[in-house]
Design goal:
The complex is a heterodimer of chains A (72) and B (322). Chain A has 72 residues and is mostly helical. Chain A has a domain at 33-72. Helices cover 81% and strands 0% of the residues of chain A. Chain A has three helices and no strands. Helices cover 5% and strands 59% of the residues of chain B. The termini of chain B are far apart. In chain B, strand 7 (157-165) and strand 8 (169-176) form a beta hairpin. Chain B has a 19-stranded mixed β-barrel. With 322 residues, chain B is mainly beta. Chain B is built from two helices and 19 strands. The chains are: A mainly alpha (72), B mainly beta (322). Chain A: One of its GO terms (cellular component) is mitochondrial outer membrane translocase complex. Chain A: Residues 1-25 are annotated as: Disordered. Chain A: Belongs to the Tom7 family.
Chain lengths: 72, 322
Amino acid sequence: MASRVSSKGKGKAARGSRGSGGRWTGRCVKEWSTWAMKKAKVITHYGFIPLIIIIGMNSKPKPQLSQLLSPV
Amino acid sequence: MGSSVGHAAAPPPPAPPVGLAVALPPKVEQKSEKKVDYLNLPCPVPFEEIQREALMSLKPELFEGLRFDFTKGLNQKFSLSHSVFMGSMEVPSPSSGIIKVPTAHYEFGANFLDPKLMLVGRVVTDGRLNARVKYDLTDNLTLKINAQLTNEPHFSQGMFNFDYKGKDFRAQYQMGNNAFYGANYIQSVTPHLSLGSEVFWLGHQRKSGIGFAARYNTDKMVTTAQVASTGIVALSYVQKVSEKVSLASDFMYNHMTRDVTSSCGYDYILRQCRLRGKLDSNGCVAAFLEERLNMGVNFILSAEIDHQKKDYKFGFGMTVGE
């Protein structure tokens, strides 16, 4: 929490100076892309196998739900 | 009867040589060879599969312990797999080589195979996910994604590959995590020979490398050579002795660690079983047997004896389903 406040403060100061506007944009893009990669990693980790199962159960010929759960 | 027919079809005897032809040696009859069409060469194998015959014969998936795989197909394209493994796995340790850790895990997997899209996912009980995606963007361009995701931070890996298949060449561009970028290119030069090269760049360690490879194959044999600027020279030779038997040999030299390894092995593909064995210059003997007991039921035996390190590994298992 403290680091987030301090980085926002640093960002405002850089914007105020106007000379390093490009650097602030670059840092913002890097922070957001890191955040997006972390979220994408979590979504893939939990959702990849359910995604395959959903795509598979909707392919033709449509298999039954009981076939998915039973071991035979 | 056959001989009289042959005699009737025989050409008239050649005229006696005259002039300069008396002094020169007689002209050897030219065998009619198929003219090589350099504009119509076959497409080469992908660069990472350049040594695939040697790898298939010499490096089977040896394991120690019990392995049980069950694949259940729900329809033509979609299948689920359950896999149990109990045994020792090798963890490389910096101090004294390799430590064996007893592990047991259950792995659940789902596969979806379409002509255009392939999705394979495997998740293990400790939370590791192994995902592979292959999608054909167009007829010639393929996107492949390969990822290993773990619960521990900073241990996950991912790689994106873009493959382009041309008429007689293949090109690939790779992007991976840790700022890894790579590209490779392979081209058929004659109907039997293909040459390729690769470059890679590791962002975080500021390392780059370049490598060259060549592959010569005929119906009966395949030979490959690879040289890389990381100091690795790898040669391999596979000879298909008959439909059922292949012999393979392999040589690897690492200039940085001054490590030389050479191995030779055999691969018997018989009706009911497949037996692979190899002998190494490190004093390691290995064998791998897959025996087909019934339709879709395979029995697997794996053995690896390392005389130098006194390490004996034996494993057995069963695979049910395609």
